[in-house]
Design brief:
The structure holds 3 protein chains of 3 kinds. Chain A folds into 2 domains: 62 residues; 98 residues, Glutaredoxin, CATH 3.40.30. Helices cover 54% and strands 10% of the residues of chain A. Chain A has a 4-stranded mixed beta sheet with strand order 2-1-3-4, with helices on one face. In chain B, the strands form 5 sheets. Chain B has a 5-stranded mixed beta sheet. A 5-stranded mixed beta sheet of chain B has the order 11-10-14-12-13. In chain B, strands 8-7-6-9 form a 4-stranded parallel beta sheet, with helices on both faces. The longest helix of chain B has 22 residues. The N and C termini of chain B lie far apart (96 Å). In chain C, helix 2 runs antiparallel to helix 3. A 5-stranded mixed beta sheet of chain C has the order 2-1-5-3-4, sandwiched between helices. Chain C has a two-stranded antiparallel sheet with strand order 6-9. In chain C, strands 7-8 form a two-stranded antiparallel ribbon. Chain C has 2 domains: 77 residues, Ubiquitin-like (UB roll), CATH 3.10.20; 81 residues, Alpha-Beta Plaits (2-Layer Sandwich), CATH 3.30.70. Chain C is globular. Chains A and B meet through helix 2, helix 4, helix 5, helix 6 and helix 7 of A and helix 2, strand 10, strand 14, helix 18 and helix 25 of B.
């Protein structure tokens, strides 16, 4: 499991405590709690699972079992941009795999991985229900239809442009602060 | 006292109708904003409508609606202007939105050239019933989808929504149960178990606490009708759930919706709140002594949770792992209490049956499978989308008349029906009527209603492999047959599609294993997992043979069995498109100016083939890969 | 005392408490039915190993004995071509995911897989399937025992002992499908887990996955 960064431990304890306080520690609330913790922290740090297990008075290994069972849960921090390739039947038939491979080539990571700079993560999903515009890729929250390798190039260029813009903005802000 | 509910309802209905009538006095623009519409760019279209309407100072409303089922033509918009027939426009972009506002709303030109269909009979423009699709289609549960605002309960009430609830509260629960039983409503989740029988079994239990759960864990890849209904007409599902609870004697209800459907979850949450405000949910519903509450549980991404006992287990905060039956869920389900789990669509029929009677329901469909079937028609089909046809319609009618056949002048090969639990049926099975029993006889399964059309470019071994990979990934891993059996089947199929398997005996092993997994698995996910392989072995045996004996993929789909090749006799010196399209710089210009592919660099992404201009069509796929030597040898001479 | 009923297994008339699961009735009467995951106290039974298939009159297909309650007049056959075929396949599937080399295994001669092979005349090597054994390390961090996940058949008996009998909560199932395995929180070594080395789990392991050190 991931090493925690400085200050992360306190943040986890605070957030998980809040969410536990809201839901109560009934076993039935385990999945909703885990979902909310992941929404809040972006992933489920080991520490968060331990806190929840203790509050619910269940073995922590059971929480670990649950989070490794369901697709939705992530035990490592995700990339800033989450790219999900739909692998539903309709998408698969018309090039879902080709789209996946295009991203893999661009990002030099495989399915289920995150780039080392934590900027991108690549996942596959089983049908997002937009089969009419297959193949489909979900970029962050947006759905992109009819994705070809050329479109993947376009998406990546747009990401890079956004990144640059942001960096520039940051630099400008820092300059202003410096003034 | 029973009468009180209908009186109360009439008041609520009158208020809703007044509101909707007032709304219709002014022009209304409805934009399809279900996930499918949004994906096609509906949000921009909606903003364009709003902006343009505002800039002209018009008093027109823009309302988000769900999905009409014509997903191929998204984004869709309906414009209803007083004094005009409401018209539906397809493929709307920002430009067209602007133009429609100016031409139609400001002036009075409905722009017929862009209209797709009229929603009311008129003298000028055809309606749905004038199209072949309209002849076969008969909308029961999809009737209001795409035409009402799912975020505003008054739209549903105006369409007589919750009238059935008001009515049944004046009846005894047994009477409601009898009506559903007499309608022979079969569960739409796939297996077709009679809902009334299930409800009765649950009702009979002495335990006073009972649960009813709406299964919205639609996991079949290629199926999205449940999502569409939840997003487009949430109240009809809710009403059905409340009625079933009354019939069963349930105290609490749940929506179990998969995490991949965030919009459906939001829509249902909003709808529940509004239903509560109107008094359709909560304590003493519509003044009766019936109390009922509904909660939402968000699934966390496990296909196996579509199985009832796994679903319940996940609601209890555990892994979604099926348990052996008996006991049935109706005896011991959620929290060990009697529980009914039904599919979204099943609940959707309930208000209609209670409103119009069992005989009305049975007048559609076949005696064994009354009512309609809802399908998502996707894949290699002209009109993809959501369709609803009477049970008993043949697959041929569905594909060729409703879906308007296979595009690009390609040849039909098979239809995959029922997702990973279903099977692939060939041309010869197209006259099979669609109903629970006929499909099962043909080796497929109704499943939850995903229908993927495959053409000559689709490899049947590849399709079988795809579904096996899916179930193998989604197997919970508890029982031996499913965990290990599907893995071995996948290994064999991998070898065949990669040209590594040279022994025909592997097909015998594949079949034996498939049969044993079917007989020996613990739950229905495992028991049905081999179906795609068994049906393709049955109907497309030759394709398996060719893969093994010749290392050739006749559909030119299996990546390891094909190579891309640029035919010099077709290629042009004047064109460079493919070179630019190649993501790996595998295409180079030969000395004579024609293009060729460096096979070492080629990743077989298909981009060059797609971009090569139609006047050349010079990029071709060869299988088996050895053909390349022949070709290259030939052209060198 | 619950009501007694009479049933027939392989032609033998047997009296048993009504509602008792068939597997236990058979085993108590010295009629062997292969099984790995059965624990009398687990209710509903796990029914996950899929080895205890039998033929019961009135059922079209073989059924698992572990979750079938006996009833008056029930007629059971422990063997039939259909039963033998399913048991053989299930057994071979389990072997394909099990590190063989019995001679090097601490449970050699006391292993349940060996017992099943002997009883049903099945081979202890792979004939139809390729090996799928995963590359997982042996955890010998506890002082008194070791855990070899490549020999585990996922019967779940150890997890039951750990959770319900010892009340420790050191080990459990994780992941899904072919990756399902028994492990600790975060896949740490047992020494870094809450394990108290009570040894309960080792005692119930039917194969060589959990074994005491010499």
């Amino acid at each position: 499991m991931q090493q925690l960064l400085e200050g992360e431990k306190e943040l986890i304890i605070e957030k998980v405590g809040e969410i536990l306080g809201k839901h109560g520690s009934d076993r039935e609330n385990l999945i909703p709690i885990l979902q909310e913790v992941q929404d809040s922290l972006g992933y489920l740090p080991g520490l968060s699972m331990e806190i929840i297990a203790e509050a619910m008075d269940i073995p922590s290994v059971d929480v670990f079992g649950l989070t490794t069972f369901y697709n939705q849960f992530r035990l490592n921090p995700p990339g800033k941009h989450q790219i999900k390739i739909c692998m539903g039947t309709a998408c698969y038939m018309v090039g879902g795999r080709i789209a996946l491979e295009s991203f893999e080539r661009h990002l030099k990571i495989g399915e289920g991985e995150t780039t080392s700079d934590r900027k991108y993560s690549l996942e596959t999903v089983a049908c997002v229900g937009c089969c009419a515009i297959a193949p489909v890729v979900v970029v962050n929250e947006d759905i992109e239809g009819k994705v070809t390798p050329t479109r993947v190039d376009g998406l990546m260029l747009a990401f890079e442009a956004d990144e640059q813009e942001e960096e520039q903005k940051e630099a400008e802000e820092n300059e202003e602060k410096g003034d | 006292m029973g009468q009180a509910s209908t009186e109360l309802y009439e008041k609520i209905k009158a208020a809703a109708t007044e509101k909707i009538t007032a709304l219709k006095q002014k022009p209304v623009v409805l934009v399809g904003m279900a996930t499918c519409g949004k994906a096609a760019g509906a949000e921009k279209v909606r903003e364009a409508f709003k902006k343009e309407i505002e800039s002209h100072g018009l008093e027109a409303q823009v309302i988000d609606v769900g999905c009409m089922g014509h997903c191929y033509a998204e984004p869709l918009a309906i414009i209803a202007k007083p004094g005009h027939t409401p018209l539906c426009y397809g493929y709307v972009d920002e430009e067209l939105a602007k133009r429609l506002v100016i031409d139609f709303l400001v002036n009075d030109d409905p722009c017929y050239e862009f209209a797709m269909v009229a929603l009311e009979t008129n003298d000028v423009f055809p309606t749905f019933s004038d199209f072949p699709r309209g002849v076969y289609e008969q909308k029961m549960i999809l009737e209001h989808c795409g035409f009402i605002d799912p975020e505003d309960i008054d739209h549903y009430i105006d369409k007589d929504g919750y009238a059935a609830l008001a009515k049944i509260l004046t009846l005894e629960p047994e009477e409601v149960l009898e009506e559903v039983k007499s309608a022979n409503l079969r569960g739409r989740g796939g297996a077709g178990f009679p809902a009334g029988t299930k409800w009765e079994a649950c009702r009979k239990q002495k335990e006073p606490v009972k649960y009813v759960i709406c299964n919205g864990d639609e996991g079949d890849p290629g199926a999205f009708m449940d999502r569409s209904i939840l997003e487009s007409n949430p109240h009809q599902v809710i009403e059905g759930l409340i009625i079933s609870a009354y019939a069963i004697g349930a105290t609490e209800g749940y929506f179990y919706i998969r995490a991949e459907y965030p919009q459906a979850i939001r829509t249902i949450r909003t709808a529940l709140e509004q239903a509560r405000e109107k008094g359709f949910l909560g304590k003493s519903i519509l003044g009766s002594d019936f109390d009922f509450e509904i909660k939402v549980f968000q699934g966390s991404g496990a296909f196996v949770c579509g199985e009832g006992s796994a679903l319940v287990s996940s609601m209890e905060g555990k892994m979604g792992i099926p348990r052996p039956r008996p006991p049935r869920l109706t005896t011991s389900g959620f929290r060990g209490k009697p529980t009914v789990v039904n599919n979204v669509k099943t609940f959707c029929y309930v208000p209609l049956i209670m409103k119009n009677g069992a005989d009305w329901f049975k007048s559609t469909g076949t005696p064994g499978s009354p009512g309609t079937a809802v399908f998502t028609l996707v894949g290699k089909i002209t009109n993809s989308g959501l369709v609803e046809v009477p049970m008993g319609t043949t697959l041929r009618q569905l594909i060729y008349d409703v879906g308007e056949g296979i595009p690009d002048e390609k040849e039909f090969k098979a239809v995959q029906i029922g997702g990973p639990s279903g099977g692939c049926l060939p041309e010869s099975a197209l006259d099979v009527p669609i109903d629970f029993d006929s499909l099962e006889e043909a080796g497929a399964m109704m499943g939850s209603g995903g229908l993927v059309v495959l053409n000559e470019d689709d490899c049947m071994v590849g399709i079988a492999r795809y579904f096996l990979e899916f179930v193998q990934k989604e197997s919970c891993g508890k029982c031996t047959f499913c965990r290990l059996g599907t893995k071995h089947m996948l290994e064999i199929l991998n070898d065949i599609t990669q040209g590594k398997e040279k022994d025909l005996a592997s097909l015998d092993l594949l079949r034996e294993l498939a049969e044993d997994i079917k007989a020996g698995s613990l739950c229905n996910l495992g028991k049905t997992a081999p179906n795609p392989v068994l049906t393709t072995l049955r109907y497309f045996w030759d394709e398996y043979i060719v893969h093994i004996t010749e290392g050739r993929c006749p559909a030119l789909m299996c990546k390891d069995l094909i190579v891309y090749y640029i035919a010099p006799e077709l290629c042009s010196k004047l064109c460079n498109v493919c070179v630019g399209s190649c993501p790996t710089e595998a295409i180079y210009t030969r000395e004579d100016g024609l293009k060729a592919i460096d096979q070492e660099k080629c990743v077989k992404c298909d981009n060059c083939l797609k971009t090569c201009p139609p006047q050349y069509n010079a990029v071709i796929k060869l299988s088996p890969p050895e053909m390349l030597k022949e070709k290259e040898g030939g052209s060198a001479k | 005392m619950s009501k007694k009923i009479t049933l027939t297994i392989d032609g033998r008339e047997i009296t048993a408490p009504e509602g008792e699961k068939l597997l236990w009735v058979a085993l108590d009467n010295d009629i062997y039915i292969p099984n790995l995951c059965a624990v009398k106290e687990i209710d509903p039974p796990q029914a996950s190993c899929r080895l205890c298939f039998v033929e019961v009159e009135g059922y079209r297909e073989p059924v698992t004995a572990c979750n079938l309650a006996v009833t008056e007049g029930m007629v059971v056959k422990t063997r039939s071509p259909a039963v033998d075929r399913l048991v053989k396949t299930a057994f071979e599937l389990l072997l394909s995911d099990h590190r063989l080399k019995c001679s090097e295994c601490p449970k050699n001669r006391s292993c349940e897989l060996q017992k099943i092979a002997k009883e049903r005349r099945l081979k202890l090597r792979l004939t139809r399937f390729r090996p799928l054994v995963k590359d997982l390390p042996i955890d010998d961090s506890p002082d008194t025992f070791a855990f070899d996940p490549t020999r585990c058949v996922l019967c779940g008996r150890c997890v039951w002992e750990d959770h319900e009998v010892a009340g420790v909560g050191a080990i459990g199932f994780s992941r899904r499908g072919i990756d399902r395995r028994v492990t600790t929180f975060g896949d740490t070594s047992l020494a870094d887990s809450p394990c108290i080395e009570c040894g309960f789990c080792v005692e119930v392991c039917p194969v060589g996955a959990l074994s005491f050190k010499e």
